[in-house]
Amino acid sequence: MNGSLIAIIVILVLCLVLAGIIYYAYCRIREKLRDTSRMLFGTDSMIEGMKQREAEVEMTPKSVSSATNLYMPSIMRDFPEFHYDEMKSRAENVLTSYLQSITGQNPALLSEGTKELKEQLRLRLEMLQNQSQRESFENIHIHRTEIHQYRKQKGRQSIVLQSAVEYIHALKENGKLIGGSEERKEQAKYNVELVYIQDQDMVENQEDAGLALNCPNCGAPLPGLGAKKCIYCDTPIVEYNLRIWNFSRVEEA
User: Fold this and answer.
1) How many other β-carbons are positioned within 10 Å of the β-carbon of residue 226?
2) Max CA-CA distance within the chain?
3) More confident residue, 31 or 168
4) Which residue spans traverse the membrane (predicted)?
5) Separation CA 213–CA 81 (nearest Å)
6) Same structural domain, 103 and 189
7) Rounded distance, CA 227 to CA 102, Å?
8) Which of 22, 42, 57 is the last residue of a domain?
């Protein structure tokens, strides 16, 4: 009996020692996690810290690549009558209406754009339909828009404007949510390309041929950027530049 009692006592002692070691290790791990959480999130709870970080990400606008001040002097030299504030407003309207067109499954909601942009939208809606999916963008808010790039190619100049956007984005398949959220806000940034076709004979993308700069009176090509009148019939074309800028692409950055 004494031997059995001693064995039981030894086992109990070992169990207590093991429990003590486990508890000590647990306390050390919890302390490490608390220190890490304080360092990363400023709170004792890692879970609370992660929730706070998610909330911050949800509310913090994406940073846009601002090169407006860098490119504007070149743009104004090439296009003296370029109205940046108006173009920025138009770009934001195009972006908003593009997302609304996807939500409403209605390409007619797109405010303006080239055949290229309209085809891009049509293909996206067709893809969603073929996959029995619906995509929605609700409560759209644009925080900021800046010039991201200014490109000069053969017969084609383009300005890429980048916008920081906030919305509630959800993707459903057969009525079941498979992406995004119907409640949480999401931050994103988009590029919107604004194109100007200078010389129809040099245009590489035939879909943009209708945007070539021609005299509104005789139809002759006007190869000079920012030309004030037609060199063939002397017809004034002041402000004509505004009418041949158009939007060719919208894509998430």
Assistant:
1) 18
2) 123
3) 168
4) 6-26
5) 15
6) yes
7) 38
8) 57
Q: Which domain holds residue 135?
A: 64-252
DSSP 158-175: EEEEEEEEEEEEEEEETT
Tell me: pLDDT of 174 over 50: yes
Tell me how far CA of residue 204 lies from CA of 65, 92, 103, 143, 208, in angstroms.
28, 27, 32, 34, 8
176 and 234 belong to one structural domain: yes
- For residue 138 the two structure tokens come to 């609700």
Contact 213, 195 (CB under 8 A): no
**Pairing mode of beta strands 156-173, 186-197:** antiparallel
- What whole-number distance in Å separates Cα of residue 111 and Cα of residue 158? 19
Residue 32 sits in the same domain as residue 147: no
- More confident site: 79 or 43: 79
Report the predicted TM-score, pTM, of the whole model to 2 decimal places.
0.65
The answer to whether the CB of 171 falls within 8 A of the CB of 103 is no
> In this predicted model, what pLDDT tens digit does every residue of 196-245 receive, in sequence order?
865 444 444 444 444 445 676 777 776 555 566 777 888 776 543 334 78
Q: Which two three-digit tokens encode residue 109?
A: 């909601």
The CATH number covering residue 127 comes to 3.10.450.240
Q: How far apart are CA 192 and CA 153, in angstroms?
A: 17
> Higher model confidence: residue 107 or residue 81?
107
Domain count, the chain: 2
